Amino acid sequence: MDLFNNDEVNLFGQGKNLLPFDGEALIYPYFFKEDVFARLVEETPWKQDKMKIYGREVEFPRLTAWYGDSDEVYIYSGVVNVPVPFSSLLNAIKQSAEQQCGYRFNTALLNYYRDGNDSMGWHSDDESELGSNPVIASVSFGASRVFRFKHKIQKDAKVSVELHNGDLLIMRGATQHHWLHQVPKTAKKPGPRINITFRLIG
Ligand SMILES: O=C(O)CCC(=O)C(=O)O
Ligand SMILES: [Fe+2]
């Protein structure tokens, strides 16, 4: 399906590596041309996950959905996720990302940041199901939000980038071993944003 009209796929070549060392985070600005934000909001079976902190239930500061083409269960931030099958829209996005990465994915985690109070805390995507040096393709739609990296050991090594509607970010190599990433809360009153991370598990 030529949904995204990505004739320029190779214009950006390898993409620019945002990380100075210990990993690769390749950015492809405005990779996806089609504005699918509203469709994704509508079509996705959003869930409000909760986590237990010191015995107290706390809602995640975002909504989530988990897609996969196996019925493999994936544990993320202590939450057991049973995937729903890929929609045709998600399949089309996945295929474009796969083409650019030269890599295959079988799952997608969707995060819906409704406003500036929604966020994602510092973490690495280093679950064992992902293997040792996972390739993760992150695609953003809707409002722009800041996305930050910080090195686990070298505390002064930090990278900040604004992810826009249609941006593709590929994390690969040793990135998850050495770097944490986050989407901080902001008082700037951004509109809603959806991020999709494609992963290969199992
Ligand atoms: O929303 C983003 O840009 C990042 C999402 C993320 O880090 C994740 O799903 O693991
Ligand atoms: Fe992540």
Automatic annotation (TrEMBL):
Residues 104-202 form the Fe2OG dioxygenase domain. GO terms for molecular function: catalytic activity, acting on DNA; demethylase activity; dioxygenase activity; hydrolase activity; metal ion binding; oxidoreductase activity, acting on paired donors, with incorporation or reduction of molecular oxygen. SUPFAM superfamilies: Clavaminate synthase-like (SSF51197). Keywords: Dioxygenase, DNA damage, DNA repair, Iron, Magnesium, Metal-binding, Oxidoreductase. Its cofactor is Fe(2+). It holds the Pfam family 2OG-FeII_Oxy_2. One of its GO terms (biological process) is DNA alkylation repair. PANTHER family: ALPHA-KETOGLUTARATE-DEPENDENT DIOXYGENASE ALKB HOMOLOG 3. This is Alkylated DNA repair dioxygenase AlkB. The lineage of its organism: Bacteria, Pseudomonadati, Bacteroidota, Sphingobacteriia, Sphingobacteriales.
